[in-house]
Amino acid sequence: MTYDAPAEAGPEAIHPEPDTKDWTWILDRPCPECGFVAGSVTADQLPELIRDNATYWEIYLAADNARERPRPAVWSSLEYAAHVRDVHRLFAERVELMLTEHEPSFANWDQDATARDSDYAAQDPEAVADELMDAADLAAATYEKVPPDAWGRRGVRSNGDVFSVETLGRYHLHDAVHHLWDVRAAAKRATVAAYDASVATYVQATSFSEQTRSVLDRFLAELETGDHVLEIGSGPGHDAKALEAGGVRVRRTDITEGFVAHLRKQGFAAACLDPLSDDLRDPVHPDVPYAAVWASATLLHVARDDFGTVLGRLAAVTRPGGTLHVSLKEGDGEEWTNRGHVEAPRLFVYWREPALRTALEEAGWEVLEVGHADGRLGDVWLDVLARRRG
To answer: Which residues does the annotated region (Disordered) include (predicted)?
Structure first.
Protein backbone atom coordinates (compact mmCIF):
# COMPACT_ATOMS: atom_id res chain seq x y z
CA MET A 1 0.00 0.00 0.00
CA THR A 2 1.01 3.61 -0.38
CA TYR A 3 0.00 6.93 1.08
CA ASP A 4 -0.10 9.79 -1.35
CA ALA A 5 -2.30 12.31 -3.05
CA PRO A 6 -4.49 10.71 -5.69
CA ALA A 7 -2.87 11.06 -9.07
CA GLU A 8 -4.55 13.49 -11.43
CA ALA A 9 -6.59 11.86 -14.17
CA GLY A 10 -8.21 13.39 -17.22
CA PRO A 11 -11.06 15.93 -16.99
CA GLU A 12 -13.61 13.22 -17.75
CA ALA A 13 -12.69 11.25 -14.61
CA ILE A 14 -15.22 10.93 -11.82
CA HIS A 15 -12.83 9.48 -9.25
CA PRO A 16 -9.15 10.23 -8.80
CA GLU A 17 -6.91 7.66 -10.43
CA PRO A 18 -5.75 5.02 -7.91
CA ASP A 19 -2.39 5.79 -6.35
CA THR A 20 0.19 3.08 -7.02
CA LYS A 21 3.41 4.89 -6.14
CA ASP A 22 5.68 3.71 -3.33
CA TRP A 23 6.78 6.61 -1.15
CA THR A 24 9.21 4.84 1.20
CA TRP A 25 12.05 6.80 -0.43
CA ILE A 26 10.80 9.80 1.53
CA LEU A 27 12.73 8.44 4.51
CA ASP A 28 16.03 8.90 2.67
CA ARG A 29 15.66 12.19 0.80
CA PRO A 30 13.57 15.38 0.90
CA CYS A 31 10.17 15.46 -0.75
CA PRO A 32 10.56 17.70 -3.83
CA GLU A 33 6.89 18.71 -3.64
CA CYS A 34 6.02 19.50 -0.03
CA GLY A 35 9.63 20.00 1.16
CA PHE A 36 9.38 17.48 4.01
CA VAL A 37 12.77 16.28 5.28
CA ALA A 38 12.37 13.09 7.30
CA GLY A 39 15.87 13.26 8.74
CA SER A 40 15.15 16.61 10.37
CA VAL A 41 12.32 15.17 12.50
CA THR A 42 13.24 13.57 15.80
CA ALA A 43 11.01 11.01 17.49
CA ASP A 44 10.13 13.33 20.36
CA GLN A 45 8.78 15.93 17.89
CA LEU A 46 6.19 13.62 16.32
CA PRO A 47 3.30 14.22 18.78
CA GLU A 48 3.45 18.02 18.60
CA LEU A 49 3.85 18.09 14.82
CA ILE A 50 0.92 15.73 14.29
CA ARG A 51 -1.35 17.79 16.54
CA ASP A 52 -0.25 21.06 14.92
CA ASN A 53 -0.99 19.65 11.48
CA ALA A 54 -4.53 18.76 12.57
CA THR A 55 -5.37 22.36 13.49
CA TYR A 56 -4.94 23.40 9.84
CA TRP A 57 -7.52 20.87 8.69
CA GLU A 58 -10.00 22.23 11.21
CA ILE A 59 -9.76 25.65 9.54
CA TYR A 60 -9.99 24.31 6.00
CA LEU A 61 -13.02 22.18 6.80
CA ALA A 62 -14.86 25.23 8.18
CA ALA A 63 -14.70 26.89 4.76
CA ASP A 64 -17.85 27.06 2.65
CA ASN A 65 -16.07 25.38 -0.27
CA ALA A 66 -14.53 22.48 1.67
CA ARG A 67 -16.48 20.04 -0.51
CA GLU A 68 -15.38 21.56 -3.82
CA ARG A 69 -12.77 19.76 -5.90
CA PRO A 70 -10.28 22.10 -7.61
CA ARG A 71 -10.48 19.76 -10.62
CA PRO A 72 -12.70 16.73 -11.24
CA ALA A 73 -9.89 14.24 -10.65
CA VAL A 74 -8.37 15.91 -7.57
CA TRP A 75 -9.74 15.48 -4.07
CA SER A 76 -11.43 18.31 -2.19
CA SER A 77 -10.20 19.51 1.20
CA LEU A 78 -12.94 17.35 2.76
CA GLU A 79 -11.78 14.20 0.99
CA TYR A 80 -8.13 14.80 1.85
CA ALA A 81 -9.08 15.46 5.49
CA ALA A 82 -11.13 12.26 5.71
CA HIS A 83 -8.13 10.37 4.33
CA VAL A 84 -5.74 11.97 6.83
CA ARG A 85 -8.15 11.09 9.66
CA ASP A 86 -8.10 7.44 8.58
CA VAL A 87 -4.31 7.47 8.22
CA HIS A 88 -3.92 8.71 11.80
CA ARG A 89 -6.15 5.89 13.04
CA LEU A 90 -4.29 3.30 10.98
CA PHE A 91 -0.84 4.34 12.13
CA ALA A 92 -1.91 4.47 15.77
CA GLU A 93 -3.02 0.84 15.39
CA ARG A 94 0.24 -0.15 13.72
CA VAL A 95 2.39 1.47 16.37
CA GLU A 96 0.36 -0.35 19.03
CA LEU A 97 1.04 -3.64 17.22
CA MET A 98 4.76 -2.91 17.03
CA LEU A 99 4.86 -2.21 20.76
CA THR A 100 2.98 -5.38 21.74
CA GLU A 101 4.03 -7.94 19.12
CA HIS A 102 7.36 -9.08 17.69
CA GLU A 103 7.75 -7.75 14.15
CA PRO A 104 4.05 -7.81 13.25
CA SER A 105 2.90 -7.97 9.64
CA PHE A 106 0.50 -5.20 8.61
CA ALA A 107 -2.56 -6.10 6.60
CA ASN A 108 -2.84 -4.31 3.27
CA TRP A 109 -4.96 -1.15 3.32
CA ASP A 110 -6.34 0.11 0.03
CA GLN A 111 -6.76 3.84 0.54
CA ASP A 112 -8.62 4.33 -2.74
CA ALA A 113 -11.15 1.61 -1.99
CA THR A 114 -11.65 3.10 1.48
CA ALA A 115 -12.31 6.54 -0.01
CA ARG A 116 -14.92 5.09 -2.36
CA ASP A 117 -16.55 2.74 0.16
CA SER A 118 -16.72 5.43 2.85
CA ASP A 119 -17.84 8.05 0.33
CA TYR A 120 -15.46 10.70 1.61
CA ALA A 121 -17.07 13.34 -0.59
CA ALA A 122 -20.46 12.93 1.12
CA GLN A 123 -19.22 13.11 4.70
CA ASP A 124 -19.98 16.07 6.95
CA PRO A 125 -17.05 18.53 7.12
CA GLU A 126 -17.75 19.48 10.75
CA ALA A 127 -17.86 15.84 11.81
CA VAL A 128 -14.69 15.04 9.88
CA ALA A 129 -12.93 17.97 11.55
CA ASP A 130 -13.79 16.65 15.01
CA GLU A 131 -12.87 13.10 14.07
CA LEU A 132 -9.56 14.17 12.54
CA MET A 133 -8.62 16.11 15.67
CA ASP A 134 -9.45 13.08 17.82
CA ALA A 135 -7.54 10.73 15.53
CA ALA A 136 -4.49 13.02 15.50
CA ASP A 137 -4.57 13.22 19.28
CA LEU A 138 -4.82 9.43 19.49
CA ALA A 139 -1.84 8.99 17.18
CA ALA A 140 0.18 11.66 19.03
CA ALA A 141 -0.59 10.04 22.39
CA THR A 142 0.50 6.68 20.98
CA TYR A 143 3.90 8.09 20.01
CA GLU A 144 4.18 9.82 23.39
CA LYS A 145 3.98 6.52 25.23
CA VAL A 146 6.70 4.78 23.20
CA PRO A 147 9.46 3.80 25.69
CA PRO A 148 12.93 5.16 24.86
CA ASP A 149 14.22 1.68 24.07
CA ALA A 150 11.27 0.78 21.80
CA TRP A 151 11.73 3.19 18.90
CA GLY A 152 13.74 0.54 17.07
CA ARG A 153 11.04 -2.15 17.27
CA ARG A 154 10.07 -3.32 13.81
CA GLY A 155 6.99 -4.03 11.72
CA VAL A 156 6.59 -5.36 8.18
CA ARG A 157 4.26 -3.93 5.56
CA SER A 158 2.36 -6.28 3.25
CA ASN A 159 4.80 -5.62 0.38
CA GLY A 160 7.80 -6.53 2.55
CA ASP A 161 8.95 -3.05 3.54
CA VAL A 162 10.37 -3.02 7.07
CA PHE A 163 9.83 -0.05 9.39
CA SER A 164 10.97 0.80 12.87
CA VAL A 165 8.57 2.70 15.12
CA GLU A 166 10.63 5.82 14.48
CA THR A 167 10.75 5.50 10.68
CA LEU A 168 7.04 4.63 10.60
CA GLY A 169 6.36 7.81 12.57
CA ARG A 170 8.29 9.93 10.07
CA TYR A 171 6.55 8.24 7.17
CA HIS A 172 3.21 8.86 8.87
CA LEU A 173 3.99 12.54 9.48
CA HIS A 174 4.98 13.04 5.84
CA ASP A 175 1.57 11.82 4.75
CA ALA A 176 -0.21 14.48 6.82
CA VAL A 177 2.25 17.21 5.83
CA HIS A 178 2.11 16.32 2.14
CA HIS A 179 -1.67 16.47 2.06
CA LEU A 180 -1.63 19.93 3.61
CA TRP A 181 0.62 20.86 0.72
CA ASP A 182 -1.92 19.31 -1.65
CA VAL A 183 -4.63 21.64 -0.34
CA ARG A 184 -2.40 24.70 0.07
CA ALA A 185 -4.80 26.73 -2.09
CA ALA A 186 -7.34 26.27 0.71
CA ALA A 187 -5.11 28.36 3.00
CA LYS A 188 -5.30 31.24 0.54
CA ARG A 189 -9.06 30.91 0.20
CA ALA A 190 -9.57 30.83 3.97
CA THR A 191 -7.38 33.89 4.50
CA VAL A 192 -9.10 35.85 1.74
CA ALA A 193 -12.52 34.84 3.11
CA ALA A 194 -11.48 36.05 6.59
CA TYR A 195 -10.69 39.50 5.23
CA ASP A 196 -13.79 39.54 3.04
CA ALA A 197 -15.99 38.95 6.07
CA SER A 198 -14.38 41.81 8.02
CA VAL A 199 -13.97 44.57 5.43
CA ALA A 200 -16.21 47.10 7.21
CA THR A 201 -14.57 46.50 10.59
CA TYR A 202 -11.09 46.63 9.09
CA VAL A 203 -11.75 49.89 7.24
CA GLN A 204 -13.15 51.60 10.35
CA ALA A 205 -10.39 50.39 12.66
CA THR A 206 -7.37 51.21 10.51
CA SER A 207 -5.69 54.31 9.11
CA PHE A 208 -2.36 55.19 7.54
CA SER A 209 0.36 54.09 9.95
CA GLU A 210 2.87 56.80 10.74
CA GLN A 211 5.36 54.00 11.37
CA THR A 212 5.22 53.54 7.60
CA ARG A 213 6.01 57.20 6.92
CA SER A 214 9.79 56.91 6.84
CA VAL A 215 9.62 53.83 4.61
CA LEU A 216 7.17 55.54 2.28
CA ASP A 217 9.32 58.67 2.06
CA ARG A 218 12.40 56.59 1.29
CA PHE A 219 10.39 54.73 -1.38
CA LEU A 220 9.20 57.99 -2.97
CA ALA A 221 12.75 59.33 -2.99
CA GLU A 222 13.58 56.64 -5.58
CA LEU A 223 10.80 57.83 -7.90
CA GLU A 224 9.91 60.79 -10.11
CA THR A 225 6.67 62.74 -10.06
CA GLY A 226 4.06 60.95 -12.17
CA ASP A 227 5.70 57.53 -11.97
CA HIS A 228 3.29 54.59 -12.06
CA VAL A 229 3.25 52.33 -8.99
CA LEU A 230 1.61 48.91 -8.76
CA GLU A 231 0.15 48.36 -5.29
CA ILE A 232 -0.34 44.73 -4.22
CA GLY A 233 -2.86 44.43 -1.40
CA SER A 234 -4.40 47.90 -1.29
CA GLY A 235 -6.85 46.96 1.46
CA PRO A 236 -8.71 50.05 2.69
CA GLY A 237 -6.51 52.25 0.45
CA HIS A 238 -4.68 54.29 3.12
CA ASP A 239 -1.20 53.74 1.67
CA ALA A 240 -2.30 54.51 -1.89
CA LYS A 241 -3.60 57.92 -0.81
CA ALA A 242 -0.30 58.70 0.92
CA LEU A 243 1.66 57.62 -2.15
CA GLU A 244 -0.46 59.75 -4.45
CA ALA A 245 0.00 62.71 -2.09
CA GLY A 246 3.71 62.18 -2.76
CA GLY A 247 3.22 62.74 -6.48
CA VAL A 248 3.03 59.25 -8.02
CA ARG A 249 0.18 57.37 -9.71
CA VAL A 250 -1.04 54.17 -8.07
CA ARG A 251 -2.75 51.15 -9.56
CA ARG A 252 -4.81 49.75 -6.68
CA THR A 253 -5.21 45.96 -6.52
CA ASP A 254 -6.28 43.44 -3.91
CA ILE A 255 -7.09 39.73 -3.89
CA THR A 256 -10.08 40.37 -1.61
CA GLU A 257 -13.22 41.34 -3.51
CA GLY A 258 -14.62 43.21 -0.50
CA PHE A 259 -11.68 45.61 -0.41
CA VAL A 260 -11.89 46.15 -4.17
CA ALA A 261 -15.59 46.97 -3.84
CA HIS A 262 -14.83 49.40 -1.00
CA LEU A 263 -12.19 51.21 -3.09
CA ARG A 264 -14.54 51.49 -6.04
CA LYS A 265 -17.25 52.97 -3.82
CA GLN A 266 -14.73 55.63 -2.85
CA GLY A 267 -14.36 56.50 -6.53
CA PHE A 268 -11.02 54.76 -7.18
CA ALA A 269 -10.25 52.36 -9.99
CA ALA A 270 -9.31 49.04 -8.42
CA ALA A 271 -8.74 45.49 -9.65
CA CYS A 272 -9.24 42.14 -7.96
CA LEU A 273 -5.89 40.53 -8.62
CA ASP A 274 -3.91 37.52 -7.38
CA PRO A 275 -0.19 38.28 -7.72
CA LEU A 276 0.61 34.57 -7.99
CA SER A 277 -1.51 33.83 -11.04
CA ASP A 278 -3.13 36.91 -12.62
CA ASP A 279 -1.73 39.20 -15.31
CA LEU A 280 0.06 41.98 -13.41
CA ARG A 281 0.59 44.30 -16.38
CA ASP A 282 -1.20 47.63 -16.64
CA PRO A 283 -4.29 46.81 -18.76
CA VAL A 284 -4.19 50.28 -20.36
CA HIS A 285 -0.49 50.14 -21.28
CA PRO A 286 0.49 46.46 -21.01
CA ASP A 287 3.89 46.97 -22.64
CA VAL A 288 4.93 49.75 -20.26
CA PRO A 289 6.53 48.44 -17.04
CA TYR A 290 5.76 49.96 -13.66
CA ALA A 291 8.26 52.28 -12.03
CA ALA A 292 7.78 50.56 -8.68
CA VAL A 293 5.78 48.07 -6.62
CA TRP A 294 4.36 48.73 -3.14
CA ALA A 295 3.40 45.58 -1.20
CA SER A 296 2.97 46.54 2.43
CA ALA A 297 1.74 43.90 4.90
CA THR A 298 0.26 41.70 2.20
CA LEU A 299 2.83 39.17 0.92
CA LEU A 300 3.07 37.84 4.47
CA HIS A 301 0.06 35.70 3.53
CA VAL A 302 1.82 34.12 0.53
CA ALA A 303 2.90 30.49 1.01
CA ARG A 304 6.66 30.18 1.43
CA ASP A 305 6.92 27.95 -1.65
CA ASP A 306 5.13 30.58 -3.76
CA PHE A 307 6.93 33.63 -2.39
CA GLY A 308 9.84 33.53 -4.85
CA THR A 309 7.44 33.10 -7.76
CA VAL A 310 5.47 36.18 -6.71
CA LEU A 311 8.65 38.24 -6.32
CA GLY A 312 9.80 37.12 -9.77
CA ARG A 313 6.45 38.02 -11.34
CA LEU A 314 6.64 41.47 -9.74
CA ALA A 315 10.15 41.94 -11.10
CA ALA A 316 8.98 40.97 -14.58
CA VAL A 317 6.53 43.91 -14.74
CA THR A 318 8.89 46.47 -13.17
CA ARG A 319 11.40 48.51 -15.15
CA PRO A 320 15.13 47.91 -14.59
CA GLY A 321 16.16 50.08 -11.67
CA GLY A 322 12.56 50.19 -10.43
CA THR A 323 11.77 50.07 -6.73
CA LEU A 324 10.05 47.50 -4.52
CA HIS A 325 8.74 47.84 -0.98
CA VAL A 326 7.72 44.70 0.92
CA SER A 327 6.89 44.41 4.61
CA LEU A 328 6.64 41.08 6.40
CA LYS A 329 6.57 39.84 9.97
CA GLU A 330 9.80 38.54 11.45
CA GLY A 331 9.80 35.02 12.81
CA ASP A 332 9.99 31.34 11.99
CA GLY A 333 7.49 29.05 10.32
CA GLU A 334 3.86 30.08 9.92
CA GLU A 335 0.80 30.56 12.07
CA TRP A 336 -2.97 30.83 11.88
CA THR A 337 -4.13 33.75 13.99
CA ASN A 338 -7.08 36.12 14.33
CA ARG A 339 -5.14 38.86 16.09
CA GLY A 340 -5.87 42.34 14.83
CA HIS A 341 -9.06 43.62 13.22
CA VAL A 342 -10.19 40.39 11.53
CA GLU A 343 -12.32 37.92 13.44
CA ALA A 344 -11.55 34.72 11.52
CA PRO A 345 -8.04 33.22 11.50
CA ARG A 346 -5.61 34.04 8.70
CA LEU A 347 -2.38 32.33 7.72
CA PHE A 348 0.78 34.37 8.37
CA VAL A 349 4.14 33.24 6.99
CA TYR A 350 7.12 34.54 8.96
CA TRP A 351 10.57 35.38 7.63
CA ARG A 352 14.09 35.97 8.88
CA GLU A 353 16.24 38.58 7.17
CA PRO A 354 18.86 36.22 5.63
CA ALA A 355 16.25 33.99 3.95
CA LEU A 356 14.27 37.04 2.85
CA ARG A 357 17.33 38.63 1.27
CA THR A 358 18.10 35.40 -0.57
CA ALA A 359 14.55 35.12 -1.93
CA LEU A 360 14.65 38.70 -3.20
CA GLU A 361 18.07 38.35 -4.82
CA GLU A 362 17.08 35.11 -6.55
CA ALA A 363 13.95 36.77 -7.92
CA GLY A 364 15.86 39.61 -9.56
CA TRP A 365 15.88 42.29 -6.85
CA GLU A 366 18.89 44.05 -5.34
CA VAL A 367 18.20 44.63 -1.65
CA LEU A 368 18.93 48.22 -0.66
CA GLU A 369 17.91 47.98 2.99
CA VAL A 370 15.97 45.88 5.47
CA GLY A 371 14.58 47.77 8.43
CA HIS A 372 13.25 46.27 11.67
CA ALA A 373 10.25 48.00 13.22
CA ASP A 374 8.22 47.17 16.32
CA GLY A 375 4.55 46.47 15.62
CA ARG A 376 1.62 47.45 17.83
CA LEU A 377 0.96 43.80 18.77
CA GLY A 378 4.46 43.19 20.04
CA ASP A 379 5.70 41.72 16.77
CA VAL A 380 8.61 42.88 14.61
CA TRP A 381 8.21 43.93 10.99
CA LEU A 382 10.83 43.60 8.27
CA ASP A 383 10.60 46.62 5.96
CA VAL A 384 12.38 45.95 2.67
CA LEU A 385 13.44 48.41 0.01
CA ALA A 386 14.86 46.81 -3.13
CA ARG A 387 15.78 47.75 -6.68
CA ARG A 388 14.99 45.81 -9.85
CA ARG A 389 18.21 44.57 -11.39
CA GLY A 390 18.78 45.55 -15.02
So the answer is: 1-20
